[in-house]
């Protein structure tokens, strides 16, 4: 029986847990808190997870690295190195840095610039060393959205902005497509290290997504703001996102895993979120 340990009981980790339970896997998650878990999921305190790592057939790591390195390897690296499980490590497409709007794919060498992306790349390499040739999928994700975390929520809350910067497109991925990709990777483990991408098929300008959300809600879109004007009021974090421009392809990932995205663009994703909120059955 598949014994899956998910390190991190956050938004994405719990989505993976729900999908795995639906496939009758034995699932445990680690947390430093007391999250509300799906039925059938075992909670393991983060500090006590070493024994569960050793017993797992599959490990999914969602915990981000800190300034001093990867927290999972710091806490129980010896267990990771001694284990026999296949691992899926959730990383970020930020490791590719700024490509001036050009496309990157799974074979593109990383070139991180932002400090958090540099830390992610260091964590990827640390996991490669720790698993010592066992199956390791490095799943690099674009911006994750889904129920409760989408442009629909931003528009409703009045915090959405239509920042206009022609030609600057962002990738994104629906939470449930992330979960599907993780389970597909577990079903088709690689030999050694494999780079995968979790990003939908249509990079899009931020303002286009905001306008689409407003249309679905039947409200006016926020007024357009020129990028040069918006920049002055952005946080350092927001500026770091806008400072990089790249388009990310996941074609090789979908071929390797034998999948298609359920939500190939923000249009399908936002429409499905709204339908779910209204109690409508998904397509």
Q: Can you walk through the features of this model?
A:
By secondary structure, the chain is an alpha/beta fold. The protein is built from 11 helices and 13 strands. Strands 3-2-1-4-5-7-11 form a 7-stranded parallel sheet, with helices on both faces. The protein is globular, with a radius of gyration of 19 Å. The two termini are 31 Å apart. The relative contact order is 0.14. The mean pLDDT is 95.
Mean pLDDT: 95
Largest sheet: 7 strands, parallel
Structural class: alpha/beta
Q: Report helical residue fraction.
A: 25-40%
Whole-Å distance between the termini?
Answer: 31 Å
Topology (SSEs and partners):
Blueprint: E1 3-7, H1 11-22, E2 26-31, E3 41-45, H2 50-55, E4 58-61, H3 71-82, E5 86-92, E6 103-104, H4 115-131, E7 136-141, E8 143-145, H5 151-157, E9 162-164, E10 172-174, H6 175-187, E11 193-198, H7 206-217, E12 224-226, H8 227-232, H9 236-242, E13 247-248, H10 251-257, H11 266-277
Parallel strand pairs: 1-2, 1-4, 2-3, 4-5, 5-7, 6-13, 7-11, 8-10, 9-12
Helix pairs in contact: 1-6, 3-4, 5-7, 7-11
């Amino acid at each position: 029986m598949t014994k899956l340990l998910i390190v991190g009981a956050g938004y994405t980790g719990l989505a993976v847990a729900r999908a795995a339970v639906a496939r009758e896997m034995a699932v445990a998650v680690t947390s430093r808190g007391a999250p509300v878990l799906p039925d059938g999921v075992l909670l393991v305190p983060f500090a006590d997870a070493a024994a569960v790592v050793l017993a797992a057939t599959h490990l999914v790591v969602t915990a981000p690295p800190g300034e001093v390195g990867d927290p999972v390897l710091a806490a129980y690296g010896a267990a990771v190195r001694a284990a026999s499980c296949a691992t899926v490590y959730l990383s970020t497409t930020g490791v590719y840095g700024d490509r001036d709007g050009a496309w990157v794919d799974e074979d593109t060498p990383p070139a991180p610039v932002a400090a958090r992306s540099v830390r992610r790349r260091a964590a990827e390499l640390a996991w490669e060393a720790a698993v010592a040739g066992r199956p390791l999928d490095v799943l690099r994700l674009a911006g994750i959205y889904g129920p409760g975390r989408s442009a629909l929520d931003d528009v409703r809350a009045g915090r959405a902005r239509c920042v206009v910067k022609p030609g600057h497109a962002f990738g994104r991925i629906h939470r449930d497509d992330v979960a599907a990709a993780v389970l597909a990777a577990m079903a088709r483990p690689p030999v050694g290290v494999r780079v995968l991408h979790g990003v939908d098929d249509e990079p899009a300008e931020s303002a286009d997504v905001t306008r689409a959300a407003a249309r679905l809600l039947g409200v006016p879109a926020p007024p357009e703001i020129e990028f040069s004007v918006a920049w002055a009021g952005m946080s350092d974090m927001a500026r770091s996102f806008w400072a990089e421009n790249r388009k990310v392809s996941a074609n090789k990932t979908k071929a390797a895993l034998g999948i298609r995205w359920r939500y190939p663009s923000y249009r399908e994703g936002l429409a499905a979120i709204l339908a779910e909120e209204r109690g409508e059955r998904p397509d």
